[in-house]
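FAQ

Q: What does a record look like?
A: Structure on top, sequence underneath. For example:
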C-alpha cells in the first residue's frame, strides 16, 4: 500500500565547501523536543494527558512536537469502535515497555533526565505530571545536529515528497546516527473514554484526536547516517504515497504533518523538526474557522481587542479578512491583513473601538469576507462580566513558584500596553513580592499573570487590595497559561484621616457597635454620614450640637470598612 524511495546520493561536505547550497542552519541551537505519548481510546486519564501535551505544544510552538501513539491494551477497540493502532506504534510500545506503566505515559527525546534536587535518574518513560519538568531540562541543552525539512503533497497522485537536511554542530558519541521521518494527523474525531469528564457524555464520540502517529516514512528505527563528524552535512529525499485511509479511518491530507528526528541508536533523540506540506492539485473551497487564543476570554474582560486563532480551511493563501465584531449589539467592521498558508492556522489580534463595559457583556466575531469573497464561516461568540471596582492605589501581593523566571506579573491598560511589570525573581526560589501602585483614576486596567510553560504557577498566588487594604481580587490556583483580572479605578482613595483639628474631633466604634463622633464644642447643627467603601451612603443624620459625643447605632451594618463624614471631617473605620 505504501512505499518510500530514498535518494542514493548521500552528501557529506565540509562547511567551507559550498555551504550556501543548504537551507539548514550552521549555528549552534538548543534542542527541540519530541514528546511521544502512549495512549488508547479506553484510557480514562488520557484526555488529561492530551491537555498537558497540547499545553506544552502551545508553550513551545515550533520547538516541541508530539507523536500520539495508540498502542497496548487500552487501544484495542470494541466492536464498532475505531482502531487507531499501527504496527510501528505497537513496536515502539514493546521496545520501551510502555504497557508496564500507567497510561497515559510518554517519552521526551527518548532520554532519561535527573530532576533538580533529586539524587536518581528518572526512567525514559514518564507520567504526565513529569513531562513539563523534563522538557525544561532538555530545552536548555545544545543540539549537536540541526535539521531542516520541506514537504510537498501532490493531490492527484497523493504523493508526499520530503527533503531533509542536517548539519552537525557538535560532537556525538556514536559514529552512526539514524534519521527518522514520520507522518502525523490532526483532527481525527472519534471515540475516547474519559472525555465525558470534560464536556458531558456525548463528547465521547466527538473527541478531537491530535498529533496521531499514522505512518513511518523511513524504516521504524531510521535511515543510517554514516558520517557524524562536526561540520558535516547530510541530505535525504523521500517519496511516499499517502493512503486514503488507515484501518478504515480517512487520512485527510490537509491535516497531515511531517516530523523528522535524529537518534543515537533506538533512543536518545538528538534533535527534531517538522514541516507542514505545501499543496498542489489538492483543492478545498475558500473558508476559515475561528477559535480562542490560548489565553482565552475569561469571565471578566475589557481589552480593546480580541486575540483569536484563524485556521485556513482551503488551498488558497489567505492575505485579507474583514470581520464583523459585535460587542453589546454594536457592530464594527475590522480588517486584518497578513498571510495564512493553505490548511494552516495563525493567531491574530483584532483591535476594536473602546466600549463601556456593562454588568453583563456579549460579543461575537464573524468573518464578513476572506480575500474579498463572502464566506459562510461560523461566528465565535461568548459573554463576559464587567471589571471589578477598586481605588487608584493598588496593593499587590505576589507569590511565584520555584520556576519563577517562567512567571510574569504585569499591569496593562485597555490597549494591552505595559503599565507596570513586577520582577526581580530568582529562578529556583519561591519569591514573595508586595508592592503599591498608583494608577490613573477612572481608567480600566488588567492585572495579567502568565506562565511560559503552560503548566500554571504551582502554589503561586496573587492578592489585590484597594488603597485602604481591603481585598478585591485573588487567585491561589493559577492554572495553565495564567489569568487576567480586569478592574476599574473608580473608587476614591481614602488612605488616612482627613480633618481640621484632631484635638477637637475624633470618630471611633464603641463596644456596643455604635459609631461615636466626639467634639469639645459643637455650635448649631452637625451632620454625620456613613458611606460604604464603594461610596454608597448608608446613614445620614443631623444633630444639634451640645458639646457632647453623638452616638449612631451601627449594629445593622455587616463587617467591613466604612467612611464617616462629619462636616468636612472624614475618617476610615473598621467594623
Amino acid at each position: 500500500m505504501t512505499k518510500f524511495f530514498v535518494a542514493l546520493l548521500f552528501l557529506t561536505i565540509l562547511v567551507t565547501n559550498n555551504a550556501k547550497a543548504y537551507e539548514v542552519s550552521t549555528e549552534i541551537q538548543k534542542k527541540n523536543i519530541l514528546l511521544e505519548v502512549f495512549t488508547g481510546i479506553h484510557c480514562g486519564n488520557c484526555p488529561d494527558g492530551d491537555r498537558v501535551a497540547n499545553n506544552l505544544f502551545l508553550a513551545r510552538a515550533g520547538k516541541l512536537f508530539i507523536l500520539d501513539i495508540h498502542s497496548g491494551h487500552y487501544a484495542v477497540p470494541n466492536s464498532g469502535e475505531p482502531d487507531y493502532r499501527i504496527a510501528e506504534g505497537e513496536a515502539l510500545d514493546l521496545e520501551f515497555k510502555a504497557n508496564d506503566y500507567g497510561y497515559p505515559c510518554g517519552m521526551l527525546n527518548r532520554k532519561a533526565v535527573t530532576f533538580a534536587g533529586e539524587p536518581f535518574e528518572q526512567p525514559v518513560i514518564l507520567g504526565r505530571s513529569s513531562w513539563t519538568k523534563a522538557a525544561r531540562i532538555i530545552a536548555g541543552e545544545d543540539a549537536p545536529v540541526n535539521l531542516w525539512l520541506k514537504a510537498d503533497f501532490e493531490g492527484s497522485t497523493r504523493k508526499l515528497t520530503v527533503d531533509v537536511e542536517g548539519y552537525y554542530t557538535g560532537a556525538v558519541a556514536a559514529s552512526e546516527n539514524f534519521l527518522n521521518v514520520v507522518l502525523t494527523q490532526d483532527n481525527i474525531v472519534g471515540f475516547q473514554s474519559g472525555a465525558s469528564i470534560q464536556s458531558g457524555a456525548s463528547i465521547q464520540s466527538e473527541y478531537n484526536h491530535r498529533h496521531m502517529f499514522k505512518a513511518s516514512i523511513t524504516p521504524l528505527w531510521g535511515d543510517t547516517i554514516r558520517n557524524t563528524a562536526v561540520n558535516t552535512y547530510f541530505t535525504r529525499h523521500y517519496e511516499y504515497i499517502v493512503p486514503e485511509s488507515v484501518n478504515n479511518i480517512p487520512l485527510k491530507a490537509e491535516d497531515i504533518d511531517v516530523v523528522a528526528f535524529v537518534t543515537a541508536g533506538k533512543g536518545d533523540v538528538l534533535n527534531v523538526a517538522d514541516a507542514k506540506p505545501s499543496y498542489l492539485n489538492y483543492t478545498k473551497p475558500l473558508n476559515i474557522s475561528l477559535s480562542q487564543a490560548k489565553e482565552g476570554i475569561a469571565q471578566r474582560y475589557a481589552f480593546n481587542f480580541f486575540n483569536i486563532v484563524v485556521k485556513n480551511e482551503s488551498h488558497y493563501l489567505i492575505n485579507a479578512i474583514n470581520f464583523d465584531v459585535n460587542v453589546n449589539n454594536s457592530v464594527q467592521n475590522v480588517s486584518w491583513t497578513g498571510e495564512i498558508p493553505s490548511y494552516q492556522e495563525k493567531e491574530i489580534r483584532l483591535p476594536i473601538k473602546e466600549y463601556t463595559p456593562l454588568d453583563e457583556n456579549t460579543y461575537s466575531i464573524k468573518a464578513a469576507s476572506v480575500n474579498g469573497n463572502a464566506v459562510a464561516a461560523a461566528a465565535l461568540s461568548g459573554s463576559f462580566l464587567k471589571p471589578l471596582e477598586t481605588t487608584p492605589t493598588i496593593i499587590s501581593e505576589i507569590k511565584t513558584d520555584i520556576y519563577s523566571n517562567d512567571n510574569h506579573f504585569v499591569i496593562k491598560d485597555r490597549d494591552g500596553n505595559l503599565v507596570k511589570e513586577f520582577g526581580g525573581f530568582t529562578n529556583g526560589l519561591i519569591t514573595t513580592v508586595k508592592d503599591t501602585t498608583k494608577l490613573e483614576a477612572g481608567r480600566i486596567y488588567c492585572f495579567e499573570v502568565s506562565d511560559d510553560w503552560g503548566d500554571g504557577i504551582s502554589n503561586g498566588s496573587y492578592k489585590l487590595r484597594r488603597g485602604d487594604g481591603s481585598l478585591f481580587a485573588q487567585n491561589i490556583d493559577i492554572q495553565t497559561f495564567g489569568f487576567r483580572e480586569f478592574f476599574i479605578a473608580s473608587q476614591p482613595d481614602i488612605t488616612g484621616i482627613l480633618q481640621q483639628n484632631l484635638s477637637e474631633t475624633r470618630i471611633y466604634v464603641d463596644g456596643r457597635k455604635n459609631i461615636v463622633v466626639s467634639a469639645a464644642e459643637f455650635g448649631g447643627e452637625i451632620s454625620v454620614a456613613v458611606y460604604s467603601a464603594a461610596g454608597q451612603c448608608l446613614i445620614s443624620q443631623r444633630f444639634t450640637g451640645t458639646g457632647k459625643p453623638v452616638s449612631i447605632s451601627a449594629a445593622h451594618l455587616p463587617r467591613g470598612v466604612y467612611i464617616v463624614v462629619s462636616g468636612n471631617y472624614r475618617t476610615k473605620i473598621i467594623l
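Q: Is there anything notable about this one?
A: Residues 1-19, 495-503 have pLDDT under 50 and may be disordered.
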